[in-house]
Amino acid sequence: MAHAQHSPETVRTWLITCFAGHVGLPAQEIDPGRPFSDYGLNSVGSVGLAADIEDHWGVVVTAEEMWEHPSIDALGLLIARKPADRPADALGSAN
User: Fold this and answer.
1) Long-range contacts of 6-12 (CB under 8 A, 24+ apart)
2) Dist. CA 75–CA 72, nearest whole Å
3) Contacts of 2 (CB under 8 A, 6+ apart)
4) What are 47-67's pLDDT values in tens digits?
5) Is the pTM of this model over 0.70?
6) Which residue did the predictor score with more confidence, 47 or 3?
7) How far is it, in rounded angstroms, from Cα 61 to Cα 63?
């Protein structure tokens, strides 16, 4: 497995937009340092966010990792450093 070749800033920007869609807020209202729970993200929402991350970045984020990385800033660093679980060419148009 190759490591993700994305900067934390690139991942962070994408996460802000994706997360905003999950919580129904404009992206500019999302503070990437605030915990997901401050925005009302529950376990069902976390599963949806994790699925979007896998679809877009090819990286599996477990429920435990979501708990241990409870903000966009923390989760973005994890995603940028994690090995991709699928090669980039297998992601298709999700990039």
Assistant:
1) 6/57, 6/79, 6/80, 7/80, 8/76, 8/77, 8/80, 10/80, 11/57, 11/76, 11/77, 11/79, 11/80, 12/72, 12/73, 12/76
2) 5
3) 83, 84, 87, 88
4) 999 999 999 999 999 989 999
5) yes
6) 47
7) 7
